[in-house]
């Protein structure tokens, strides 16, 4: 649930307030505040501080000289700190006053809103806290910008909810039902292929991974095609939808490596939530989302190392490891994407543990054949602080994927595994394409500012802002 947010033109009295400023001279509207003392306090602490008298006054000083992207991120983190204060003090009515720039005010509000997320569906005692109403005083901020931000935050919450749901609820079939609900709310279409249809289409990757499951797979097609779309050919988003990954018969061997594998469908959640934000905010862009979904379990009928499967496009693949399953689903979906004659395809997946080794929890790993779009994505990622590190797709990375008995094998070697997995996917593309590995950022063990423990929603804001600037 999100608070009611209202834009105002006159500052309200007797209400807890967050003050965003760049120069101390601009604080003349607050005669009750000792500006000299505030400046001294901020010099000793960080870029924010709190006064209680008895109302809460929260001051965030956006320091000049910082790169703009770091100023925006500092504002988001300050908004998150303000949320913590509000929750601790049980303040439900507040105002935000900004006199620096609209982007900083919106970033502060974004950090505050994103921090209000909690997943307490299965808790007897809830610990939810959401302010009842927020007033925004900034001449540069419009009501449309506030509404757009609220929708995007709601989309991030959808992503987080889906990632946090356990397999006991979120089977592939239920995942499809959640996408249908989102489509009905936002206005995009959803078509769900059942197991019989998937078998008829000969999606060998998706069918192989599903062989060990007691639950059927689904293949989900979401589409937003407004009449005023600026692109003649669609942007296609592809998301990995493995609702739980045991590793299959190549059972995950390391400590705790299976504990949070309900998050292995985070790429699919990001794609669905991005479609929600795009459609709900009525971006003039034709966007298609594809999510192949199943769990990966070691049943007696499960696929095994040594099997050879035939993919949707006819490529044969020797299975070297059943825990390298995400690339099999994505490969079928990437091949299917050709049906849309796409202008660009972006796949999103918690694909390799080595991606987390590269970036930790600070960035995703990106690669692809479209240097121009990768640079655009990097710029957007820096601006909103969902950053990326690009790795190459050198031809040498294809050599370990050779097989003596099939066209490819699905594993390669341990070294450079993130790039090798990307090279495997590249085989199934003949279009402009980017691959985003979110294994390190999709799920956190501990809270990090406005990113909660559990599902983070990382990638939803990134793709939305990238698509918003696409044409």
Descriptive overview:
By secondary structure, this protein is an alpha/beta fold. It folds into two domains: 4-140, Leucine Aminopeptidase, subunit E, domain 1, CATH 3.40.220; 152-468, Aminopeptidase (3-Layer(aba) Sandwich), CATH 3.40.630.10. Helices cover 35% and strands 21% of the residues. Helix 5 runs parallel beside helix 8 (266-280), helix 9 runs parallel beside helix 12 (417-426) and helix 11 crosses helix 13 (460-468). It starts with a strand and ends with a helix.
Quick structural overview:
The chain is α/β, with parallel strands linked by helices. The protein is 35% helix and 21% strand. Strand 15 (363-368), helix 11 and strand 16 form a beta-alpha-beta unit.
Distance between the termini: 32 Å
Instruction: Examine the secondary-structure arrangement and name the CATH architecture of the largest domain.
Output: 3-Layer(aba) Sandwich
Task: Specify the structural class.
Answer: alpha/beta
Strand content: 15-25%
Oligomer: single chain
Number of strands: 20
Supply the CATH superfamily name of the largest domain.
Zn peptidases
Unreliable residue stretches? none
Shape: elongated
* CA-atom Rg in angstroms: 23 Å
Rounded mean pLDDT is 94
CATH domain topology of the largest domain: Aminopeptidase
Number of domains: 2
In the CATH hierarchy, what is the class of the largest domain? Alpha Beta
Largest sheet descriptor: 9 strands, mixed
The helix count comes to 13
Range of helix content: 25-40%
């Amino acid at each position: 649930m999100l608070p009611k947010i209202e834009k105002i033109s006159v500052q309200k009295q007797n209400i807890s307030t967050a003050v965003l400023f760049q120069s101390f001279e601009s604080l003349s509207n607050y005669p009750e505040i000792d500006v000299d003392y505030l400046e001294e306090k901020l010099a000793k602490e960080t870029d924010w501080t709190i006064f209680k008298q008895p109302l809460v006054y929260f001051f965030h000083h956006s320091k000049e000289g910082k790169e703009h992207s770091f100023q925006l991120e500092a504002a988001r983190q300050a908004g998150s700190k303000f949320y913590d204060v509000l929750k601790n003090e049980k303040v439900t009515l507040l105002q935000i006053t900004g006199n620096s720039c609209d982007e900083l005010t919106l970033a502060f509000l974004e950090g505050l809103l994103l921090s209000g997320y909690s997943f307490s569906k299965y808790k007897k005692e809830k610990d939810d806290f959401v302010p009842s109403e927020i007033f925004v005083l900034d001449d540069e901020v419009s009501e449309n910008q506030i509404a757009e931000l609220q929708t995007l935050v709601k989309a991030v919450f959808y992503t987080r909810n889906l990632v946090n749901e356990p397999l006991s609820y979120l089977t592939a079939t239920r995942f499809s039902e959640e996408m249908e609900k989102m489509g009905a709310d936002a206005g995009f279409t959803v078509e769900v292929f059942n197991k019989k249809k998937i078998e008829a289409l000969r999606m060998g990757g998706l069918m192989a991974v599903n062989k060990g499951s007691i639950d059927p797979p689904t293949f989900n097609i979401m589409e937003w095609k407004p009449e005023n779309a600026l692109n003649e050919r669609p942007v296609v988003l592809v998301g990995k939808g493995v609702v739980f990954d045991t590793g299959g018969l190549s059972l995950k061997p390391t400590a705790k490596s299976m504990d949070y594998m309900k998050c292995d469908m985070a790429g699919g959640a990001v794609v669905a939530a991005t479609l929600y934000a795009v459609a709900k905010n009525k971006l003039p862009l034709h966007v298609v989302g594809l999510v192949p979904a199943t769990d990966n379990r070691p049943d007696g009928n499960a696929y095994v190392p040594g099997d050879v499967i035939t993919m949707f496009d006819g490529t044969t693949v020797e299975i070297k490891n059943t825990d390298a399953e995400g690339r099999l689903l994505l490969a079928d979906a990437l091949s299917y994407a050709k049906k849309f004659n796409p202008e660009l395809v972006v796949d999103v997946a918690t694909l390799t543990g080595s991606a987390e080794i590269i970036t930790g929890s600070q960035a995703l790993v990106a690669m692809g054949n479209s240097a121009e779009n990768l640079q655009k994505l990097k710029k957007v990622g820096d601006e909103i602080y969902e950053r990326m590190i690009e790795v190459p797709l050198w031809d040498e990375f294809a050599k370990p994927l050779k097989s003596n008995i099939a066209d490819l094998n699905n594993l390669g070697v341990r070294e450079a595994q993130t790039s090798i997995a990307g090279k495997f996917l590249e085989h199934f593309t003949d279009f402009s394409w980017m691959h985003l590995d979110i294994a390190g950022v999709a799920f956190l063990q501990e809270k990090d500012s406005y990113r909660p423990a559990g599902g983070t929603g990382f990638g939803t804001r990134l793709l939305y802002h990238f698509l918003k600037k696409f044409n």
